[in-house]
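Before relying on records like the one below, remember that each one covers exactly one chain. Contacts with other chains, cofactors or solvent are not represented anywhere in the record.
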Amino acid sequence: PVVGECGDRARAMSTPHKSTSDVDVVLATTRGDWTSREDGAARFIKVWDFASARAAELYATTTAIEGRENGKVLGVSTLPRHLRRRATSHAPYLSRRRPNLKRRRGDVGGDVGRGFRLCREALRRRGRLNAETKRVIDGVTFKVLRTHTWHAKRFTTRKHSKWGWILPSIRPGRGRGWRFIMKSIAQSALVHDSSYYSCIVLKGDGAVVRRALVELAVEKKCLNNKMFRAAHRACAMHIETFKNKRTIAPVMAYYMPRAKDSNDSEAHVWVHPAASEKALQAIRAAVARQVARKVKRGGSAVTVETSDAFARLEIIGHKSFEVVQKLVPRLDFLSERHVVRGVRHFVSHDPRAATLNIDQAPERIDDEPSETAPTQAEFNVSCRASRDAMLERPWEPAKAIGLKNYSGLLINRGVNASEGYSVIVPKSWAIPLLLGMSHAGARAAGMKEWSWCAQQFGKPVFPDDYLDTPAGVAQRQELFDEIKALMAKTPIGKVPQGLRELEACGRSITVGRVIRTQDALSKAESLATQHAMVRVTLRCPWSGQPSLGSELYVPTAAQNAAWTGKKSGARRRDDVALAEISGESVGYVTSVSAPAAAVGLASALISVKALSLLREKFSRASGRVFVMCKPPGKPVVPAEAHVVV
């Protein structure tokens, strides 16, 4: 007999028949009449007919199971389509929907995991995007920052083919220009990811490393400083070639803390990517010369190589001190004297927790610093654990639970805190550090905006302001090649006059040796050295804006009296004679501020011989001199120049 259930309680009843093949199974409830059912279901089921109707399905199923046991992978697909159930709809015969199967097989493209195209959702996952360090565009490989994805959502990016990098340039849209940047400096803080700079690491004999740096440095005094040799101070200097003494690039160098009872030293030299190859060659050649001299006395070898294990972020502005204090609460800034380029070593919690109300006292930081930063998901788990602990015991200060520590260097950029700091951390911590600074109130700045900040603080921009270096010459040549290409596409009658003058100015620029120290400037002025130039910063407080390609001229006595004298007793400034220039140009403008600047700012190179003449006749307060600036295709602009060495 076959038993069937119906409701809470059921019973089976069978009736005898003449043939064993004709068996009926009767299902009935225990309530009421067993010969009728209220739900309308069948009262009798013939078992043999029921099994015969499904014999083909049962046979196909058993055959598929036996075939699967014999080693066939796709046994389920042998079932007719109308016999398959929903559980077999994900058949593996659709291999294009099985990327994991392709990864295991590795038969597509000959490389496991790289022979198929990922969907956009997979490509845009946070972990994959942040892990990318290189991108191929039109067959050219470019490097990208670890923070590239974060910047790409907020900035327009630019491909620098000469440098091999894709970098953020400027924020798009209105209200994000020059005035926004100047307001951020005055009222907040600006952060710039300068991890695209190359870090050259020198390891080995301390005497060999120091002598190699002294041999290449233009400013040798800072390298002999006791604080620099004790790894408590960094040095901003220029390096030059050994033979012809030609400037290569500005660099920042510092020592890492030396291990006890060890004579080996480790020095880091940060250089712009436009001059990284030439700087690396010069440093290796200098080290080889010093090692050759040291070998005779039993010296050890020194290794010189580039490292991408570090990230460097710059922060400037009025509240840069407050932002850094939130990120690194352990440092005591008040007890120590602020030293230019002073170096501080620190260990702190995850910078993303800077704005959270979590106790980060020194006794809480007991673990060793981690070289690998936790993901955002891991950080969120730690934050939830810290928050739950705070809710359980609200009378106690919140403790950091599960937060990893990181180590880094904090380097002062200038004479005061408003000029900012350089923060150097392991590369994996670049994204958490940028997010921590943003949460603490800092605003990010791109390449173009960072050059505006340099104009505001009177700092040079590499390679634009270094026309005496190979990188500066290549940068200027690339600029004028773009101008020529633009003129070639434009009809001759529609080419602006200013563009023609700018293109002609590019052919006539000749830059000699640029003096970068005060001692060398005094010596050049006394000897009236020919073709020697010095960098000056220009400011146009009266009228007009300097532009790229402008030339500097010696003013006349009438121009000096009209613009620098009292307005009531001087000549009228709209006189036509005041707009005339005479003589040859004595300098060139290399970089300028944005057109929206209230007062035009620029950086320029001026002849030392002409500078002596200007100091005698047109000197102003604070060591400034009065000059006339002639932008291409525009009226003459009066300006005052300040020598920077």
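Residues 276-295 form the longest helix (20 residues).
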